[in-house]
Amino acid sequence: MAALAPDPPSRLLNAARLRLSVAGAESNVAMYLADHGVPVAWLSALGDDPLGHRVRATVAAAGVDVSHVRTDAGRPTGLLVKDPGPAGTRVHYYRSGSAASALGPDALDAEPLNTAALLHLTGITPALSESCRRLVTRALTDGPGARPYAVSFDVNHRAALWPDGSAPTVLRELADRADIAFVGLDEAQALWGGHLTPADVRAHLPGPRVLVVKDGANAATAFSDEGVRSVPAPRTTVVEPVGAGEAFAAGFLAGLLRDGTTTDALRLGHLTAASALRVTGDHGPLPGRREQEALLALSPREWKERTG
């Protein structure tokens, strides 16, 4: 979808200028995966309008295959507007009746899935409409290990999209069916209990082969066959935080696809998230490959020295 945000960041009420960019959890992950050199296709739907044309062009320019994105002449492209404030950034969604909200299970019949190693989904999609919920449910129906490709699921709880209060149950059931799951500790606490620790979250979600619990600027913890691995987040100047979670997921997945260790994947997730934190939009420039490799090669002590 398209996104508007005050630039420079300020309260929307008093902003003199808005910056138009492209947003969307799955498209953000796709663009960052492409930045990491991973061949990736984005499956979605856009309106036949200027915003839709801009979204398509922007995602394609990042190196993502958009040839399977549908154009819906009868529905508009979704829009979000960011409102930064002292307590964080509030997001206003204008997605009711959007082209993407009309997606359904047949989207999973697209050609790219025949050869895909990984399908990435988020908890935003099932909140858009009943047909979108059926899409995600179908994608996760077979359970871990029973699909021709791995499924990654980012809980990505957006309370404004779940007015009926069903989010805790639905998102837990979906996340537990994934091969790889991501959840922020704060959103897990909001959904399933205010005093949860990362280990408690794992107890709530025992199904995924890999579970990553992100604790904001503190650390990210992965539960997998390698055991429990926790990597602190490096110090980063934050311009605007929305989009960092998707960037982290893309970096982590890219690390796994490089056949790195879980610790390497967590580090690459942090490095990718930092690129989103430093810009007003959701998609910022990555460090060069040589710099990435140098940072991944740091000893635990050297990495810790770079953290807050």
Provide structural commentary:
Strand 8, helix 5 (about 165-175) and strand 9 (about 180-185) form a beta-alpha-beta unit. It contains eleven helices and twelve strands. The model has no long low-confidence stretch (mean pLDDT about 90). Strands 7-8-9-10-11-12 form a six-stranded mixed β-sheet, with helices on both faces. It has a four-stranded mixed β-sheet with strand order 2-1-5-6. A two-stranded parallel ribbon has the order 3-4. The two termini are about 35 Å apart. With about 300 residues, the chain is α/β, with parallel strands linked by helices. The longest helix is centred in the last third of the chain and has 16 residues, at about 260-275. The chain has helices at about 25-35, 50-60, 125-130, 130-140, 165-175, 185-190, 200-205, 245-255, 260-275, 290-295, 300-305, and strands at about 1-5, 20, 45, 70, 80-85, 90-95, 120, 150-155, 180-185, 210-215, 220-225, 225-230.
